Write the structure tokens for this entry.
Amino acid sequence: MTIPRQLVTIVRKDLLLEWRGRSRILSVVLFGVVTLLLFSFAVGPDSVMLRAAGGGFLVLALLLSSILSLSESFRVEQEQRAIEGLLLLPIDPVALYYGKTISNTLFLSLLAPILSPIALVLYSFEIGPTEFLSLIGLWVLSAAGLSAPGTLYAAMTSRLQSQDVLLPLLYFPLVTPVLMGAVKSVSLILNGDPMSQLGSWAALLTGFAVIYWSLCGLLFVNVIEEGS
Amino acid sequence: MKPISKWIHVLGITGLVLLFVGSWIGLFVAPSERFMGDVQRIMYVHVPTAWNAMLGYTFAFAFAVASLWTSRPKWDSAVTATIEVSLLLNALLLVQGSIWARATWGVWWDWDVRLTTSLIMLLLFAGVLAMRSFVQDPDRKATWTAVAAIVAYIDVPMVYFCVRWWRSLHQVQSTPETVSSSMILPLRMNAFALLFLGIWMVVYRARLETLRRRQDQVAEPARLASVGGMEDV
């Protein structure tokens, strides 16, 4: 089986498993909604402040939800040592990494059409269809930037008992540039972009996504070979 | 195991002497800066600390690549030692920067891009060491440390170039053309002083790491036997 075919098989397997159980996507969406509500409670009913910080809250909801999704993506492979079976088939580690990263990007992207309307209502934003589509596009770009290093670290930490502690410890500082770019871009869409800065921030997000996807894909072979 | 070369001790002592002389010149001989006054003198340790912290992380990156490439334990010891010493310099950098910021900007901390990326750099490499402490298997520990160090290094060029890429409260890098020659001497002396002291600490720390690994590799019964505890087992 060629590497692209293996990659498609991995993505299909993950989507099929998720469709059958639907536990991961449900818990991640619910967690995202609860996070948005908690941020609103923390700020209080000040609509001006909520509107100013709303973009940041939306991206933070994505970031915090991503931890749940990422840790789950490799936990299922550890059950009954499924990862060893996959590698013995043999599935190429490159196909395994990019398959898992694409699945994780898809899961996180699914949050956009659910969490964005909730945030728009909670924080009293009024945007048109073009801005909404830009918001979804940027969300997918941010999800891609988060998924690449997240998948690598999830693969590493899934074999450790202290995964819940270590994954956020390694992952959060690393994705801070993506977080900052995403917060700025989303805030520009929600609050207006008079200086036309959105393109530059989107380019920055794309740059980070490309760096993370290339570098982490290159290093994943070492991680999986050492761990298996 | 070969003893540490005497030249390393010479390097360490030279570093200490240079640090003392460089700081003396910086504090008492170099002229006051026209706008900031004596507060600027912290630059004679702050800038060399920043240079050496980033240089240390760059070496950690190179050692991590060598560790992955060759799988030899000596590179893993070098990665760990270099990250630890660079973390120390990184923490000192943030403290010195805060003291300077309080005196010139009026605040201990500002969410400026240079300060933020420097703090993230500290957290990233501290995370690498934290992860390392959770892994038991030495081969896996070495590989994962190298991988995490390479990924964390992405932030280091950002720290250096961010003041040029974004609008920043922090000034851009100076050049010998923009700094008085009387200020360059203490700056360079302290830079070499911290470099020599850093190398001295890295060599000792790497040796300690290698000894620890060897101790862990000794089987438990052999260790017990060496202290006369086999009869009780």
Observations:
- The first helix of chain A runs from residue 3 to 21.
- Chain A touches chain B through 23 residues (CB under 8 Å).
- Residues 104 and 111 of chain A are 11 Å apart (CA to CA).
- Chain A has ten helices and no strands.
